[in-house]
Design a protein that fits this description.
31% strand
């Protein structure tokens, strides 16, 4: 079977962690490749589970890779075998992170990137000259927001569904320290690394529907 990605491309439905996102199982990311387990609910919803038995707890203030902290990923189809089988319509995903004190996120990404910007507003900048990440989301739509760092991990895990593989780093709204010399969390979509970056660094921005 196949699924239509967020940008309208046809993707063969992933049957294992490696086919969900092959970067997850490289040596750095450390996720274990396992086959998906699929089932159907009494309401006719189809759910595929992707399990990583080697997931770890939150690394808190350390840089690490998404494959280390993703534990379970779920892709669901509200209509089962019926159409349209499109991400953002009847198909979505949820991700469980961390072995201890687990967190569950279900991001709903906007169709396109909001632009390229910093995590820190330019001092005195207004209007089109202001290009911090949060403002880029506001300019794109009133009904979107920056993803937090866990939602960005989920977006990386499901990057093939939302056509984000091959891009560079993306800003989260999770700020570590305030001010122009502060740090915020960013997620690499090409490498899988989640790292602390200077808030003045320029990165891509992809917003989530509220």
């Amino acid at each position: 079977s196949s699924v239509i990605t967020l940008n309208g491309n046809t993707l063969e439905f992933p049957t294992s962690v490696n086919k969900l996102n092959n970067v997850l199982t490289n040596a750095q990311n450390k996720a274990t490749d396992t086959d998906a387990a699929a089932f159907e609910t009494v309401n006719g919803e189809s759910i595929a589970l992707f399990y990583n038995p080697t997931c770890e707890s939150d690394h808190q203030d350390k840089n690490h890779y998404a494959g280390q902290v993703f534990c379970v990923n779920m892709i669901y189809d509200l209509n089962g075998l019926k159409g349209p089988n499109e991400v953002g319509k009847d198909v979505g995903f949820m991700t469980v992170l961390y072995r201890a004190n687990s967190v569950v996120v279900a991001p709903n990404p906007f169709l396109t990137n909001a632009g390229i910007g910093t995590s820190y507003p330019k001092e005195g900048a207004t209007g089109d000259s202001k290009n911090d990440a949060a403002d880029l989301c506001t300019k794109q739509s009133e009904d979107v927001k920056l993803p937090d760092r866990d939602e960005l991990v989920s977006m990386f895990v499901n990057a093939k569904l939302i056509d984000m593989l091959g891009s560079q780093g993306f800003w989260s709204g999770s700020v570590i320290s305030s001010g122009q010399s502060g740090l915020a969390w960013a997620q690499g979509m090409d490498t899988g690394i989640r790292e602390r970056c200077s808030r003045t660094r320029t990165q891509y921005v992809r917003c989530l529907k509220k």
